[in-house]
């Protein structure tokens, strides 16, 4: 879903004072940060990589604990 900004909203996008513009959902007062698609893809890739690394670490820890608990 794409939402087109109004002409009144475009100056806030252009100015970037104080960082990326925030959009407030008036139904629940939740703020969303408006970033470019390219920035979003970069952040998404970094987060996915971090999640993979955490999963690998957790598996490694479980394996190490399992080996420590094995009786010789």
Mean pLDDT: 90
N-to-C order of helices and strands: HEEH
Cα-atom radius of gyration: 21 Å
Return the structural class: mainly alpha
- Beta-strand content estimate: 5-15%
Task: Please report the number of helical segments.
Answer: 2
Any idea how many domains? 1
Helix fraction, binned, reads 40-55%
Could you give the distance between the termini? 59 Å
- Lateral arrangement of strands in the main beta sheet: 1-2
Query: Main sheet, how many strands, which sense, barrel?
Result: 2 strands, antiparallel
Per DSSP E runs of 2 or more residues, the count of β-strands stands at 2
Poorly predicted sequence stretches spanning 5 or more consecutive residues:
none
């Amino acid at each position: 879903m794409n939402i087109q900004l109004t002409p009144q909203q475009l100056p806030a996008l252009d100015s970037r004072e104080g960082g990326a513009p925030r959009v407030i959902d008036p139904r629940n007062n939740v703020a969303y940060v408006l970033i470019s698609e390219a920035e979003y893809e970069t952040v998404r890739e970094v987060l996915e990589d971090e999640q993979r690394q955490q999963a690998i670490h957790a598996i490694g820890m479980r394996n190490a604990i399992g080996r420590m608990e094995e009786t010789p």
